[in-house]
Amino acid sequence: MIKNKQSITPALRPLDDTDVTTWELPEGAIARFGHGLRLDVEFSPDNAYLSVATKIGFWIYDTETLTPRALWGTERGMMNVATFSHDTRWVATGDQDGILKVWDTQNGQCVARTDWGGTERRNVILHVHFSPDDQYLAASGFGHSAVYAWREEGFEPISNYKLENPNFSDYKKEGTSYDRYFPIAFSPNSNLFAYVSSPETIMISDINTGEDIANLTGHTAPLHTLLFSPCGQFLASASLGATVQVWDIQNESLVMTPKTYEGNRVRLAYTPDETLRVADIYDDKIVMWDVSQHKKFDTFNTVGTTADNARFSKDGTKFAITCRNRKIQIWHEGDSTTRSFFSGYGSIPYAVAFMQDNNTLIGGNWGSAGKIFWNIKKREVQRIFPPSGKRRSLGRCMSLSPDDQFLAINAGDNNVQIWHIETEVLAAELTEHEYRIYSLRFSPTGRHFVSGGLKEELFVWDVAHWKKQHQLIGHTSSVEAIAFHPDGNRFVTSSRDGTAILWNVETGEQISRLPLPETLEDASLYRGEPQEIERVINGGNLQYKKYQHMQSIVFSPCGNWIVGGLGTWNADALINEIRLWDTETLETRLIFLQPNGCIRPWALTFSPCGKYLVSGAWWKWGLDKAPIHLWDMSTGENIHTFWGHASDVQDLAFSPDGTLLASGSYDGTILLWDMKPYLST
């Protein structure tokens, strides 16, 4: 075993550089709210730092001060794991694209990379480990493990281990939490490599000779953790269902009776004196076990419901776990208190909205994080709705009343909550929905409120009394989007059934369905690449039309246009377009065919002046970022494209003065864009 290895201090940001909202921003953005969805946490070998892998990149935190010190890897993001080398000079990352990278902690630059996973989507990287001498690097994913002599030119694997036809169904076990399967481990002398050769079988190979030296069987559920003892004689393993076994490698035999713990998952660590520790993870607490003495030695309650990401430090003296309230909690051996941190609000902002003061942005975050009010000038959280102590699992949508007095949100129990913003009082709770709610919208006059959801549920409410005024019948599937005409008398809805309907809000009657002709005879009504226009006119996308629907629909500020973003759930279907209807005649006036690589343009907003339309798309395999397109309405030209989010763009909103654009993304962040350079006055 390599001992007393000298650690190298990473070159991090100064301690007084605390405005993380401005770190590593994409071109055109002026702020980022949120730290990104967290996918992993891991201690550096010297316990000085904690890496937090997220969908926007990986953060490095100082474990003493619990402050962020660096954000790297934002060019693509989508980091599943970020692990330090044993001398802390390097960080290896594995991402959801199947790319393995090595970063120099002295400058934050990527110094080596290889396409580990190929083009199959399930070949994401789940585990990454440096060997103790830092000469080898190993990665694993679904049914595949590999070892690299990564410092050699070419970054080619020296060993590959693949399962034949691994099956997802093998990794489901009732009553257990999701965990990362196909674990790997290096021995302390860096000569041996452990991996799984079938869901429940461990193989140990000699890296230098390629010889298999041990085949360990006995688990009855898929493995998720492998760990060599400091002496290298033993291997500890854990499987789904929280069962732990310890093996004598030379004899290929168990050295203790397998033990199944009572929580829904476990984490393992060896201390330097060879003591095996187990963290038994429940929904609301962690129980620490000394395995050799078969006894509990500590228990602590978590600051929220536990999430999947949890790690011991390499010496077993510290433990970090993420909770679903977005906190990371750290336990220290011998300390009766734990510490929690991470104010990144790393949940998905499915909706964004500006208040009329141009300085308050609301992020409609999902789950228990609440709807977050951001102060734009101060770059900080102003308030959260619902107020503390009244939050429960919240749905995706929200709507701000035109006078900024009320915020409507969908609660996890299929009810609509109406909160009075100034007093933080629950003004009303609408309970007519039997199923999940997908869309909420106040009318511009403030007199009406419309809610839509699963099973074609669609209701109009009288805001003065918060009474149901109409139940509307017309769609045959979930109501995905609602938009009001500026006069407040008409509104349009779009559904998963592929239809869009214009309604009279006072009577609840249908005015008309929006026509969706498969192709337009007049080629001049199309905007896009000439070859794409020709393909569509010749019927090149008709086979996908039956899957097409609008997940977003908006009126122009003048009310003359209705605009819908059409796409399908089939990512390969060439059927992504933005369609513009004349509000009075309902004739299709223009179709914007999307640029190559743009799918599901399901986030739409107009600039307040009405001259420009902005559309946000979902991420597509092969892209580094999801695109946001700026369109000139007078010409139909795509005049600029913003590349900032690592994953799907969920919603867009302009500030009332038109100078700022907010974009909420599935990567767990909101980006704030300066629009002044792109919009003419």
Walk me through the structure.
This protein is mainly β and 681 residues long. The protein is 1% helix and 48% strand. The strands form 14 sheets. Strands 18, 19, 20, 21 and 22 form a five-stranded antiparallel beta sheet that branches. Strands 47-51-50-49-48 form a five-stranded mixed beta sheet, with helices on one face. Strands 1-58-57-56 form a four-stranded antiparallel beta sheet, with no helix packed on it.
Question: Which oligomeric state applies?
Answer: single chain
Tally of contiguous helical segments: 1
Mean pLDDT: 91
Number of strands: 58
For the largest beta-sheet, the strand count, sense and barrel status come to: 5 strands, antiparallel
Secondary-structure blueprint of this entry?
Elements: E1 29-33, E2 38-43, E3 49-54, E4 57-62, E5 67-72, E6 79-84, E7 90-95, E8 99-104, E9 109-115, E10 125-130, E11 137-141, E12 144-148, E13 157-162, E14 185-186, E15 192-198, E16 201-206, E17 212-216, E18 223-228, E19 234-239, E20 243-248, E21 253-254, E22 259-260, E23 265-270, E24 276-281, E25 285-290, E26 295-301, E27 306-312, E28 318-323, E29 328-332, E30 339-341, E31 349-354, E32 360-365, E33 371-375, E34 380-385, E35 394-400, E36 406-411, E37 416-420, E38 425-430, E39 437-442, E40 448-453, E41 458-462, E42 467-471, E43 479-484, E44 490-495, E45 500-504, E46 510-513, E47 526-527, H1 530-537, E48 549-555, E49 561-567, E50 577-582, E51 588-593, E52 599-606, E53 612-618, E54 626-632, E55 637-645, E56 649-654, E57 660-665, E58 670-674
Parallel strand pairs: 47-51
Antiparallel strand pairs: 1-58, 2-3, 3-4, 4-5, 6-7, 7-8, 8-9, 10-11, 11-12, 12-13, 14-15, 15-16, 16-17, 18-19, 19-20, 20-21, 20-22, 23-24, 24-25, 25-26, 27-28, 28-29, 29-30, 31-32, 32-33, 33-34, 35-36, 36-37, 37-38, 39-40, 40-41, 41-42, 43-44, 44-45, 45-46, 48-49, 49-50, 50-51, 52-53, 53-54, ...
